[in-house]
Design goal:
single chain, two-stranded antiparallel sheet, lipoprotein, VacJ family lipoprotein
């Protein structure tokens, strides 16, 4: 489906399926997908992440995380520019150049100390800035919490990723697997706390996602108001 039709469909669904008082009209389906993801996590992802944390020294894990983050800086810069945040976008490009050279291919995060913090922007954030609503809450297989806007943005973000630029399918798959392992390892402590504290884990994760989405929208609205006021 062409991108413009996909985005249009997402906008229609976003306005028609969810309301302020019922942001999760797909709860029945979402809970089934959530249970599927939980089963996969318990059987594969969590044990792999725990083994990675236990057997790989922290400096190496940090270096891997830095490299993966660095590979996403150019796409973040593109999205910041699309959002009208030119200075921050150029900063992310500068961050990529600095960490790739001085930081030894991104193993070391030199740029942050030099006044170039990372932003980690995506096309989902760009759509948010353009006024596209998030729509109904959605749990995606393997990917977890999202919404209809995020679903529409996913193929665009994928095209902008390093994996899409790699000719070798094996290398691309290995990079994706490394990203998944790195992300899951970073969430080990968070998920442990959720397991211990949440009476309904699905509701806890959903509400946390929706609160974060609301905060991001508020930040985007504030930036837009500031930008319009400075004209």
């Amino acid at each position: 489906m062409p991108l413009n039709k996909l985005l249009l469909a997402a906008c229609v669904l976003a306005s028609g399926c969810a309301t302020q008082f019922n942001p999760d009209p797909l709860e029945l389906l979402n809970r089934k997908t959530f249970a599927l993801n939980e089963g996969l996590d318990k059987a594969v992802l969590k044990p792999a992440a725990q083994a990675y944390k236990n057997h790989v020294p922290a400096p190496i894990r940090t270096g891997v995380s830095n490299v993966l983050s660095n590979l996403g800086e150019p796409w973040s810069g593109v999205n910041l520019i699309l959002q009208g945040r030119l200075k921050e976008g150029l900063s992310d490009f500068g961050r990529f150049g600095t960490n790739t050279t001085v930081g030894l291919l991104g193993v070391m995060d030199v740029a942050t100390g030099w006044g170039m913090p990372g932003h980690g922007e995506s096309f989902n954030g760009t759509l948010r800035t353009w006024g596209v609503g998030g729509g109904a809450y959605l749990v995606l297989p393997l990917l977890g919490p999202a919404d209809l806007r995020g679903l529409a943005a996913f193929p665009v973000d994928r095209m902008g990723s390093v994996q899409s630029q790699i000719d070798s399918s094996g290398a691309s798959a290995a990079l994706t697997a490394t990203e998944v392992l790195d992300k899951r390892t970073s969430l080990l402590e968070v998920t442990r706390m959720i397991d211990e504290l949440a009476l309904d884990k699905y509701v806890f994760v959903r509400d946390a996602y929706l609160q974060r989405r609301a905060a991001q929208k508020s930040d985007a609205d504030e930036r837009n108001d500031s930008h319009n006021g400075s004209r």
